[in-house]
């Protein structure tokens, strides 16, 4: 399977879903012009980290955000890894990613497993308990949200069940840009998998965000990397490369799971 992926490295209007829908719609137009076949949005792309106003701005059961993603996918005939949105549930608000295919079918829902205390997530959000593994175009993949990438054992899990590409959506601040780049490269190399990671840019009242969205191949080579401004970052993902790399260094055959 080959995809032309488009990473929407956008700025996000703080606490203003209506404005962010408009912006996302324009980015989707650009992705269609570039003939992308799979498009990725960043974390919390409708609200940003306006956590104190979630009562007002979180999406009731995620419904309107999911509907928007489905319509855009059908309109442009591409798959969408829908970043994440603040989903209001009966138990509290989750940081939730939706993945929809080009026919407007929801393929997968994943809520962030690891809440990031440094940005107060633990005070306003509840953690998810979903599996990270899903299938798109018949290919196994994994879904992760930002801080999740610091937990290698969590990214390993879908890979041990066949995942070849790991999608990451983020609002990762600039002061830890080197962590972002290093962790993503390590996750690609150790898992011999593609990493497709979309980060936001711009600033909110508390943070400046790093951009530097990345597409990394299973050898750890960075195929495309964004700068620190808004852009649609594109690159080709060829899942045929996975078997070649895993054959070159057979890490998965050489594991000693009896010891760990
Ligand atoms: N939104 C996040 O989860 C940020 C994670 C982060 O910045 C980190 O250093 O980890």
Automatic annotation (TrEMBL):
Q: Which InterPro entries match?
A: C-N_Hydrolase (IPR003010), C-N_Hydrolase_sf (IPR036526), UPF0012_CS (IPR001110)
CDD domains tied to this protein: nitrilase_5
Tell me which Pfam families the record gives.
Answer: CN_hydrolase
Domain annotation CN hydrolase: ranges: 3-239
The UniProt entry's sequence similarity note says: Belongs to the carbon-nitrogen hydrolase superfamily. NIT1/NIT2 family.
Q: Which PANTHER family match?
A: DEAMINATED GLUTATHIONE AMIDASE, NITRILASE-RELATED
* Protein name in the entry: Amidohydrolase
**Whose protein is this, by species?**
Siminovitchia thermophila
């Amino acid at each position: 399977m080959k995809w032309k992926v488009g990473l929407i490295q956008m700025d996000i209007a703080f606490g203003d879903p209506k404005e962010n829908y408009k912006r996302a719609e324009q980015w989707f137009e650009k992705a269609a012009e570039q003939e992308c076949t799979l498009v990725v949005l960043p974390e919390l792309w409708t609200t940003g980290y306006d956590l104190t106003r979630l009562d007002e701005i979180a999406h009731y059961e995620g419904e309107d955000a999911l509907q928007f993603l489905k319509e855009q996918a059908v309109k442009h005939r591409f798959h969408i890894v829908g970043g994440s949105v603040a989903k209001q549930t009966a138990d509290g608000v989750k940081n939730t990613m939706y993945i929809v295919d080009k026919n407007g079918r929801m393929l997968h829902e994943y809520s962030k497993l690891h809440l990031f205390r440094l940005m107060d997530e633990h005070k306003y959000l509840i953690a998810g308990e979903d599996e990270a593994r899903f299938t798109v175009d018949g290919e196994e993949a994994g879904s992760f949200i930002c801080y999740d990438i610091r937990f290698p054992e969590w990214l390993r899990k879908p890979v041990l069940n066949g995942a070849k590409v790991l999608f990451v959506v983020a609002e990762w601040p600039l002061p830890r840009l080197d962590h972002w780049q290093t962790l993503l490269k390590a996750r690609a190399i150790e898992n011999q998998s593609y990493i497709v990671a979309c980060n936001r840019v711009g600033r909110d009242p508390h943070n400046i965000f790093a951009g530097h969205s990345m597409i990394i191949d299973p050898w750890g080579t960075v195929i495309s990397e964004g700068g620190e401004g808004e852009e649609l970052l594109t690159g080709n993902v060829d899942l045929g490369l996975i078997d070649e790399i895993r054959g070159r260094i057979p890490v998965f055959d050489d594991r000693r799971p009896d010891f760990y």
